[in-house]
Amino acid sequence: MNSLVVKLLVQRISLGLLLIFLVSILIFVGTQILPGDVAQSILGQTATPESLANLREELGLNVPAYQRYFSWLGGVLQGDLGTSLTNGRDIATSIGERLGNTLFLAAWAAVISVPLAITLGLISVLYRGRWPDKLISAVTLSAISIPEFMMSYILMYFVAVKLGWAPSVAMLNSSMGFWDKLHAITLPVAVLVFVVLAHMMRMTRAALLNVMQSAYIETAELKGIPRLQVIWRHAFPNSIAPIVNVVMLNLAYLVVGVVVVEVVFVYPGMGQYLVDHVAKRDVPVVQACGLIFAAVYILLNMFADIVSILANPRLRHPK
Amino acid sequence: MRRVPFPALIGLFITTLFLLCAIFAQWVAPYSVSEIVGDVWEPASAEHLLGTDNIGRDLLSRLIWGGQTTIFVAIAATVVSFVTGSVLGLFAAVIGGWIDQLLSRFVDLIMAIPTLIFALVVLSVMPVTLPVLILVMGLLDSTRVFRLSRAVASDIEVMDYVEAARLRGEGRTWIIFREILPNALSPLVAEAGMRFIFMVLFVSTLSFLGLGVQPPAADWGGIVKENKDGIVYGIPAALLPAIAIAALAISVNLVADWVLDRTSSLKGGRNG
């Protein structure tokens, strides 16, 4: 570790934290920009003046927006996310259970898709321009062109209903053992794997091909090293930084893809919680979930940058 | 004019077909959008080519009408996104200085939040109507167009002919619209294709979540939502919009690839 790397890392981390802070402002402002106010839009046009006044009092709408923002932010920093408007329950407790479920789902999708994407990327570079490459890119192109929820129903229809290999909904409860849980989330994991795999594999392929054009690869080829070994020993180590970057970006994408997939498979996670409460116009819950999703997304992007700083030999050994 | 390659030709053909169906839905669709014409989830027959939906409406007609809504919303949002994004992006590149910094950093900030999450946050307090939907989708997406057009314009801005125009004493507006825009158009047009597809997927996702196009209007995401319960009984009605979306997405992709390919070979390759 030299001072240049440390300086870059400190810069990147403080940028990430600053971004999270600014995003919290943006999310707060995003729920304030509307004709009328939150109370009006929750209760609708037919609300009586008394109930409006009550709700405004309850939401603290009578104090200026910046004061509300700071009391909200102060609460968030202490782990107090407020209470839900629709059922009066503590948001932090509800999110606590669901966040674990969401991470369980996303983690399995990541564990399966990352090695698979890298292997497929290697294969398609190895057979560049021949049928395995073309087949892989045709399949991934169609995977990108279908939204997650449709992919989910296609799998649900064929795998769960027609073949009966996996349950069609992914409900979890506390009495289920580890393997039962795993069986329950087969299909959602498959959908997530399929969706991120396509992006990840295409970007891995592009990163490898980029390195393959270097002079040292040509030298290795001219020395007569077998093609697989050229890729594995010479191209792959040099494309680790872009590949890790790709993986992180896709994990960040996974966090968002989870929202839709959870709704489809009735999975008790954060995404379903968020979507339910958007429909009910439960603003505190939406703010809390939005902030958490955005924070995870920003942190993953930050880790991607940190890895590429650390993996760059030019920065580690400056002249 | 060189010969249009075969994949692009197929792409053009299918895209045109979709557009024609969307424009002339009134005449193409065999039944009206909300008319109940049969039993629940009837299988395909001569009267109902694709069968009926969850309350007995003709599925083919719903798909055609739904295509009209989906494609209309997607096109409108793409236009919003393009006009905002490219005008701001070109101005930022030409003006430079603190205005450029301010706009670019603001765009970075917006892009730090996943689009779907931000859209959900905003839609939780907004009335969900078509104009609101189009504006929210278009403005959120204009960040991507802004980045692209700013990058392209900064490349062009340093060209000799722009310098010549400056020395001639042309105004900023002339330089942006008469010197830079025509030369930045081809990558922007290819990008428009991709943005349009993204909008189709986006509006379908929102409608599927119940936060997009509201019933009784039909759209592809909504059709999936209405018919999803049939899946468990082995009724594939909800899968039909998926086929429509995938076909449209792939064919627009093929056309966009061709446009990009053609323009990059004309210019000696932008991407190496």
TrEMBL record, chain A:
UniProt xrefs under PROSITE patterns: ABC_TM1 (PS50928)
Membrane-spanning ranges: 12-34, 103-127, 139-161, 181-200, 243-265, 285-311
Keywords from the UniProt entry: Cell membrane, Membrane, Transmembrane, Transmembrane helix, Transport
Major subcellular site: membrane
One Pfam family per UniProt: BPD_transp_1_N
Domain ABC transmembrane type-1 intervals: 99-304
Alphabetical list of InterPro entries matching this protein: BPD_transp_1_N, MetI-like, MetI-like_sf
Locations listed in the record: Cell membrane
Keyword Iron applies: no
Membrane topology per record: Multi-pass membrane protein
CDD domains: TM_PBP2
Similarity section: Belongs to the binding-protein-dependent transport system permease family.
Protein known as: ABC transporter permease
From TrEMBL, chain B:
Keyword list, A-Z: Cell membrane, Membrane, Transmembrane, Transmembrane helix, Transport
The keyword Transport is annotated on this UniProt entry: yes
Organism: Marivivens donghaensis
Record family assignment: Belongs to the binding-protein-dependent transport system permease family.
Membrane topology: Multi-pass membrane protein
Pfam families according to UniProt: BPD_transp_1, OppC_N
InterPro entries listed in its UniProt record: BP-dependent_transpt_permease, MetI-like, MetI-like_sf, OppC_N
Protein name: ABC transporter permease
Main location class: membrane
Recorded superkingdom: Bacteria
Residue span, ABC transmembrane type-1 domain: 67-256
